[in-house]
Amino acid sequence: MQKINSALLKDMFLGGANNLINNKAYVDKLNVFPVPDGDTGTNMSLTLKSAVDEINKNTCSTLKELGDSITKGSLMGARGNSGVILSQILRGFSKAIETKDELDIRDFALSLDSAKKVAYKAVIKPVEGTILTVIRETADYARDVYANYDNFSVFFDDLLKKANEVLQKTPELLKELKNAGVVDSGGQGLIFFIEGMVKTFKGEELKIHDDNSKSSEKLFEEDIHILDENPQFGYCTEFMLNTVKLEPNDLKEKIEHMGNSLIVVGSDNIIKVHIHSNNPGKVLEIAGEFGELDRIKIENMRLEFKERLEQNKEARKHSDNFEEIGKSQKAFSIISVSVGKGLNDIMKDFGVDYIIEGGQTMNPSTNDFLNAIKKINQNDIFIFPNNSNIIMAANQAKELSEKNIKVIPTKNIPQCIQALISMNTFMSFDENETLMSEAIPNVKSGQVTFAVRDTVSNGFDIKKGDFIGLSEKEILSCEKDANTATINLIKSMIDENSEIVSIFYGEDIKQDKADLFKEELQYEFPDLEIEFYYGGQPIYQYLVSIE
């Protein structure tokens, strides 16, 4: 009977990752709502890319070593719900193979069963019609039929056929998918990954397409800076080193005293280095002794910090109606996810200590949260994810950190601001958790953006380019212009208890246009208090908060 050893499984994993990366744009488009924020394919690709980087750092000569690298890399790189669930699927599979020297068909089937169990255990309220359904029914099928096979190729063909059948059923299990006319994006991403593994097993070489290679490299090279104090080390330094004289860990030991935020990874005699240092020239000099330097990039972070301060001053001109909160020293720290110059500044004004740039289409990974946590001296830390697709990564970081972390499950910016308003810096950490969690339901949240495809949803015949208003995962308005879509969204959201409507306008909205729209809203809703703030967020023209 055929067997799969560590070398072959490694190649299969890399082939699966490459196949998903090549198809991530397609997966991104499988979004329930026709809005420009589909990011499932990107999140799953970045999760696998992190696992690939970890594999390339180690020898992985045994199945246990390979599984450990896959588990660590995917766990640290997990982004978004789909990425976190994928990391748990891989963790369950890796756990099952750690005592094996080789895998036969039975071993592979039972490893899939372990993957299913770990993934389901990681999700508090599993939803059928998602990636979980695809892994569950595929794993159950493998467990039930493996004894009928003595040939991996035939087994894999039938397994992939079953997975695709399950995927096609997902719209029948989840109303939102059926209404949008799409299959589940996470399930499709998982099938692309399995398909790549099967093709590699059969001898097909899967490489990342040139266009995806460039985008993948760009995503890998992005430095997600935490917006905190004036940086201790002033220069963000990145470069590639072509060398046969030393391994990545050897170079890491030689330069780690030169700064922080150090990343040293490599394969095929190429080492990639990222470090924040006050002496980038010395770092390059040390590395240059062992080979040729390439793709050198040095950025002055202190200059960026000063520029950001000036931008925040400008942003405050548009948000000075917010009441000042107490400036007393907190006994805890707050990390918040945000994107947009104005929103970042508002967060700071309301007591947030560290901001991680991110949100729709740019979900921070588990490792991004851990890096932020490490930067904080205090032990008690609140995290505000501000997006339902980021909460799982934040909770995963909480479990990995030794500090006392509490994740306030905010799904959007208005919920975060409402929770921050309720904060009392003179009360305890636990008391503030209760205060902020209880404040979240007191605000209604909505967003206005544009449709990226034709569809029918909630009775609306939506055309590409239309502006749509969403609240609580439901489309409540659809119009040809953003202002009318916002007005109708507000009409659908308000009730007799509504008093205040706060609007955060995005990066595409000029201040004079926002001022005119505020007057229009005041006329349209004379009994409500209308407040406008510069948010500067991408994708969404307006964020709406109703209290």
From TrEMBL:
It holds the Pfam family FakA-like_M. Residues 7-199 form the DhaL domain. GO terms for biological process: glycerol metabolic process. GO terms for molecular function: glycerone kinase activity. InterPro entries: DegV_domain_contain (IPR050270), DhaL_dom (IPR004007), DhaL_dom_sf (IPR036117), FakA-like_C (IPR033470), FakA-like_M (IPR048394), YloV-like (IPR019986). PANTHER family: DEGV DOMAIN-CONTAINING PROTEIN DR_1986-RELATED (PTHR33434), PHOSPHATASE PROTEIN (PTHR33434:SF4). This is DhaL domain-containing protein. The lineage of its organism: Bacteria, Bacillati, Bacillota, Clostridia, Peptostreptococcales.
